[in-house]
Design brief:
Lyase 2-enoyl-coa Hydratase, Chain  A, domain 2; Enoyl-CoA_hydra_C; enoyl-CoA hydratase activity; 6-stranded mixed beta sheet; fatty acid metabolism; alpha/beta; 2-enoyl-CoA Hydratase, Chain A, domain 1; 2 domains; globular; isomerase
Length: 260
Amino acid sequence: MTSPPDVIRTERVGDEDKIFVITIDRVERSNAFDSATARAMEAAIDEFESDDSLAVAIVTGAGPTFSAGQDLKAAALGDFATTERRGGFGVMALRPSKPLIAAVEGDALAGGLELCLACDLIVATTTTRMGLPEAARALVAIGGGLFRLPQRIPFNVAMELALTGKPLPATDFHRMGLVNRITEPGGALAEALTLAGDIAAAGPLAVRASKQIAQHSFEWSDEQAWTEQMTYARPVLTSDDTQEGLRAFAEKRAPVWKGR
């Protein structure tokens, strides 16, 4: 089973085109992923990662559904939504070093939720449902959901989702802290763009370092963290941008970042 080349669309938006919007466009398959879609997503993530003018990316879905996960019809033919380098959906195993926001309209189930968990921030709507239905179908969620979800919501709630396969409304995930912002239906992308704009206005080196330290924090003991964080923080603290940030604060003006 193959997909046309435009199953992943990209657009540069915002002030100075610093925001990269990645849209999954397989509406006829509820934005489910096959291998071609995963490769297209990997290419989009690679473009985002390699372009220093891009500060933050948003992943969203065309049509009424964010993503139904793995395309099961494709899977039945041996066509799985993974790439050798970035893994599931072209992003789950090797995430970008810069921030990634999920803008979720409609449902994010199975791999759709796992795609959200590969992102750093999530914006969803009052009608969005999220869950891991795999066990109810005699499948196992292997896109990161079973080890990332318990890190981001209470363990017992993650267990209920994993073992029953029943979804919960995004409003519950918002209450538990997984979803950053809730909007009315149709407003997820606009709210994600507002959030992305706030990130794009911050110092790009500091944003990237902050993401890396936070992600690695789960691997470090408290004692290790004091030393290990400096691997990422030291180049920022000695950068031109840090000096510019301090000057701009003292002079009560907006900073002009150079990314160095």
